[in-house]
Design goal:
Blueprint: H1 12-37, H2 49-59, H3 68-86, H4 92-109, H5 117-126, H6 129-134, H7 140-160, H8 182-192, H9 200-215
Helix pairs in contact: 1-2, 1-7, 2-7, 3-4, 3-5, 3-7, 4-5
Length: 216
């Protein structure tokens, strides 16, 4: 079993573009939030899970997990569940487990699954004096403010560098004379019953393009 990543390869220019975007995204977000919320050492103006969100937004912006609704909805759902459970003064271990489990369930039902939001769930479950003092307002500042800032930077950066964000699958091409049937793709995906980090439309477009080039 290989321990290497099975991510599809990208050229160095693409990785550099993603790295520069991440630098700008988290840098501008941190600067804005610290300016708005104050530089008091006790103030929470940036939460750690935003680092993971930044990786998705700028390094793999085509991922279904990196789209605006999963990013915003995921963090807010996880934060809300964490704050709600915090009212019961649960043991930290039990609280973290329940918060993450319920967050995954609710994000799946609401179609806003965002892996870094699991970190938000843990942050809320573990609690801190700042979170306890802020209560429900912690959802707006800093969580929603962090997310909104990152999304604005991502939208501007991807537009400036010629990337489609929010990601849209390529337009459907004419039918191929290869016997390829999109219904077969749907059947395979249903049979596998796995959550894949790629949209069905992107898979279909990829298969069509590979077959088109193989034919020529």
């Amino acid at each position: 079993m290989s321990l290497r990543s099975n991510l599809l390869p990208a050229n160095r220019r693409e990785w550099l573009r993603g790295a520069l975007g991440a630098l700008l995204g988290i840098g501008l977000t941190a600067a804005l939030c610290r300016w708005l919320l104050g530089a008091d050492p006790a103030a929470v103006w940036l939460i750690a899970p935003m680092g993971a969100t930044t990786v998705l937004l700028f390094a793999v912006p085509a991922s279904p997990f990196a789209q605006p609704w999963p990013v915003l909805g995921g963090h807010l759902v996880a934060g809300s569940i964490g704050l709600a459970l915090a009212r019961f003064s649960l043991d930290p271990v039990l609280g973290a487990a329940l918060t993450v489990g319920l967050a995954v369930l609710c994000m799946g039902l609401l179609r806003c699954l965002h892996p870094p939001a699991g970190g938000t769930a843990v942050v809320m479950a573990m609690g801190s004096p700042a979170i306890t003092a802020a209560g429900w307002s912690f959802l707006s500042t800093p969580i929603a403010l962090n997310v909104a800032s990152l999304l604005v930077v991502a939208l501007a950066y991807h537009r400036a560098t010629g990337h489609s964000y929010p990601h849209h699958a390529p337009p459907p091409r004419p039918a191929l004379r290869t016997g390829y049937d999109p219904a077969a793709l749907d059947a395979v995906l249903e049979e596998w019953d796995e959550v894949l980090d790629i949209a069905r439309e992107d898979l279909d477009a990829l298969i069509r393009e590979v077959l088109r080039r193989s034919r020529g």
